[in-house]
Amino acid sequence: AKMAAAASELLTGWCLFGLALLAILIFCWVYVRKYQSRRESEVISTITAIFALAVALISSALLPVDIFLVSYMKNQNGTFKVWTSKNVNCFFKKSTCVERESLYSIILFCVFLWIPFVYFYYEEKEEDDGNTCSQVKTALRYTLGFITVCAVLLLIGAFVPLDIPNKKNSTEWEKVKLLFEEFGSSHGLTALSFSISSLTVIGMLAAITYTAYGMSALPLNLIKGTTSAAYERLENTEDIEEVEQHLLRIKSKCRDGRPLSSRDRRTVQQLEERLRTLRRRERHLESIEKSWWTKFCEAIRPLKIVWGVFFIIVALLFTVSLFLSNLDKALHSAGFDSGFIILGTNLTNPLNMLLPVLQTVFPLDYILITTIVMYFIFTSMAGIRNMGIWFFWIRLYKIRRGKTRPQALLFLCMILLLIVLHTSYMIYSLAPQYVMYGSQKYLVQVRCNTFLKKKKKILPCVSKMYYQCIVTRTYLFLHKFWFFSAAYYFGNWAFIAVFLIGLIVSCCKGKKSVIEGEVDEDDSDMSDDELSVYYR
């Protein structure tokens, strides 16, 4: 009967999950089709990008679902529910672990096999228009390097020593060890955890680069808006006239039959390229000025300003919460050798105060956690879109509406996959106690001063009562290796610094062009054929 009750409730959850999955797939299809180039689109790259983006969004739901499951196993009075017997408890833990391990295995498959193979296949296709067999062989040869890296990470993870150096706070580490013993110590799980943690470190670097900048650039762009298409078109017309007059002055030198000097020929060539770019800008600006989408954006301009102000407040709230959480670890954790792990909170932050209040009204706390996850994802998308894809100081690809190459879309989806992996630790840093225990409560007996009798009291779960509460699998997965936790700690400080720098830069920059990133000198005139898809 207990298992049947649990199964019926799980069935309802799976139905909701199916609807959410359908919505995710529709969003991924629309997003990929919006940015991919119509002239260079390929079926395999499109399917790969949609699948990878869907996996990233589904992975972002692991934390809210994990928190919901551990919270759902206890009543509000601090007692376990009737159906949460030992067998059912084990069933829940195993089922959540299987789902998590399956999803993480799919992420490893995408990052180390599928996406690299499709990427190198299209790189070879562009360089060599030979037979497909040679392209597949070359792509497999390059992909083999990624598979080797994955195998090395799994082997290291399976045999890496997990003993954490005991220093000054042995009682705290006894609690940590008990938690990890509950999590499991199989070599397969440890290998998977090490591989995912390695990717999470890369995702941390991507979050520092793109998410931190996106959190500042997205709201300020909404507030400042873009320049007027009519005003830009007037300036562009003046530039065209100026370039044409300059060309006429240079070409007038050879009216008597004398050839132009090499310097003048180079200048003419540069001016003609400049003129072609300006004329493409003219066509784009004319299309945008007449489009219904531009008129609609002008109508909802006040709403954009409101959203921009809201997003910048949220970004500042996150930054303050992250700073206080990191400061708490710096002051009260056991230090670097422990990965700056801290059980409980000594310095509270706004978000950690807000979530317990929302717990009183179901499901406001879960809605807030889901909103935070989606906020990080969309700010990451905005950061990648504004910055493009870089390798150190080399710009590899641009993300432009209707003109993004297949390889750039694959890079975009891989970066989002890695950022989503790091999002769980970011949220843990914002609300550590809530991520550990959710809305669980426990019963404690306190002595009454008047009658010297013991009285039961209901309190939120804290680290001191870890044996009465169930810890989320996400927390244990994140902190299985202390050296990764130490890297995340320093990454949070870097994230705060980049956000503040990006905020200053975004404030100093002027309004964006209405065709920002749509026209470049290396574009061909054929790219203007796609104007009708978006602007008419």
Automatic annotation (TrEMBL):
It is a multi-pass membrane protein. It comes from the Eukaryota. Keywords: Cobalamin, Cobalt, Coiled coil, Lysosome, Membrane, Transmembrane, Transmembrane helix, Transport. One of its GO terms (molecular function) is cobalamin binding. Pfam families: LMBR1. The chain crosses the membrane at residues 6-31, 43-63, 103-122, 142-162, 189-213, 305-324, 366-396, 408-428, 481-505. One of its GO terms (cellular component) is lysosomal membrane. Its main location: membrane. Residues 261-288 form a coiled coil. The keyword Transport applies. It is found in: Lysosome membrane. The keyword Membrane applies. One of its GO terms (biological process) is protein localization to lysosome. InterPro entries: LMBD1_LysCbl_Transport, LMBR1-like_membr_prot. PANTHER family: LYSOSOMAL COBALAMIN TRANSPORT ESCORT PROTEIN LMBD1, LYSOSOMAL COBALAMIN TRANSPORTER-RELATED. Belongs to the LIMR family. LMBRD1 subfamily. This is Lysosomal cobalamin transport escort protein LMBD1. It comes from Eudyptes sclateri. The gene is LMBRD1.
